[in-house]
Amino acid sequence: MDSAFGWLIEPLSLPFMQRALLGAVGVSVLCAVVGTFVVLLGLAFIGEGVSHGSLAGLALGFILKLDLLLVSVPFGIGLALLIGYLAERTRTRFDAAVGVVFATSAAVGIALISAVRVFPDLNSYLFGNVLAIRPVDLALLGIAAVVVIAVVLLLQKELILLAFDPEMARVMGVPTRAIYYLLLGLIGLTVIVCLRTLGVILVTALLVIPASAGRQLADRVPTMMLTAVVVSCLSAFGGLLLSYHLSISSGASIVLCSALCFAVSLGLGRRPVRLLPRAA
Question: 65 in the Ramachandran plot: left (φ > 0), alpha (ψ -120 to 50) or beta?
Fold first, then answer.
């Protein structure tokens, strides 16, 4: 019993693990809250588009000798808004718009890096390394979490109505277009601030998997969101422990833990569930 407790507590005695846990929990809550509406609105692929497309922002920050993450934040938000604009104002389907934007932006990033003939170390952004999270990353994550959660809570009813019945939302005078673009901006912000923790390759997973597990288990949107937060935080804690003891990628271990939780939710939530907008 003592050895098992020590296995759980030992990593947390290290300062860098304490910062890592704080960052992982922050990322988990942020992704779960935003991911709820990503799943409900069928926007899962946009996370891939913004994360891969952010390579151009990372390259630009490297060339200008600025903080890569700070440069990538406005760039990532712009990519998300551009995807929404192409899907809304042109004959391009949403999934095709994501593919066009992320492929073009990624190509620009590769071109910029190859043009300067210096190849920066982007491993922490490509694969994630929460164990190396910096104080500035925690500060940016905290600011983003406060902004995103405050907006979601403030506009929760409008977002739910947009997800379930956009036509009724418009009839009721809800500014659906503005809220839709605002949500896309929040998704872009969330993806970028999570890059240091999860990396380009895995950031979409934490947006989608915990929220998908929550949808299996809940029949109300607030309950789904709360379930997603719990699943995401448990995955972050379990993934960090596995990363420390098994010496594997922290981002990968967190995502694998969340995938395990999703598998469990499939067994527990067998009955068909129709989410209802309001809490009972």
Answer: left
Give the containing element (helix H, strand E) for 177: helix 176-193
pLDDT in tens, the chain (280 residues): 556 666 667 777 778 788 888 888 999 999 999 999 999 999 988 988 898 888 888 888 888 888 877 888 999 999 999 999 999 999 999 999 999 999 999 999 889 888 877 666 666 677 777 777 878 888 888 999 999 999 999 999 999 999 999 999 999 999 999 999 999 999 999 999 888 777 877 788 999 999 999 999 998 999 999 999 999 999 999 998 888 888 888 888 988 999 999 999 998 875 555 555 544 3
Q: What is the DSSP track for 99-140?
A: HHHHHHHHHHHHHHHHHHT-----HHHHH--GGG--HHHHHH
